[in-house]
Amino acid sequence: MDRALFLAMSGAKQDMQGMRVHANNLANVSTTGFRADLQQARSMQVFGEGTPSRVFTMAERTGNDFAQGSVINTGRDLDVAIQGDGWLAIQDANGQEGYTRAGHLKVDQMGMLQNSNGQLVLGRNDSPIFIPLPINKIEISKDGTVTVLPKGAPPDAMVTVDRIKLVKPDNRSLFKDTDGLFKVIGNRDPLDADASVSLAKGMLEGSNVNAVAEMTSMIDLQRHFEMQVKLMKTAEEMDKSSSSLMRIS
Predict the structure, then answer these.
(1) Nearest Cα to 164, choosing from 136, 202, 127?
(2) pTM
(3) End residue of a domain, out of 176, 191, 206
(4) 187 and 235 both lie in a single domain
């Protein structure tokens, strides 16, 4: 009975973890550039004193769906969507380089180019991009070059400020950090810029979450969780019955 109880408990715990993953995906169905998280687990023997006869479910680092989301036309000068494979280079709170597909950019009061979360966008030499204010216009070209029209300058006096760093790592080497940025597993060094990555200006890439599929998965996990709870209750009843027989004998 203890083996059945252990297996049911382990399965129920993993079902709860899976529901959290899918609930988070649903919560980000409208988040720009969001990549859906994937539930992952494997069986693992319990080692200790005696024979390793017990097996539990061990959750592994959550994987991600890297399929491209739908592209939305916004017409905004600071909205960019990556065409095909590739990532925007962003500086996280610790000064490390991270990567995102969310191209809803803005310029703060100090002239720093940021993403929608206030994280700095990196340019040449892996340094944050600074926009010399005040300006009348800002444009981002297909290759990531940022040009501005200084305030009071003639319309044909556009000035090149910097170039957004675009990278193209192997998606299999990436993991999603707690701040939502993707990082390269086991590597803290900045990646090299890739000239083959291009941008579409005035557009945003939406989330790649399939709401219907996520809801279906949550319903399936909920039913599986209920089955595990029933199994634990059955194991308890069987244990009580065995104890009663032992007292009678």
Answers:
(1) 127
(2) 0.83
(3) 206
(4) no
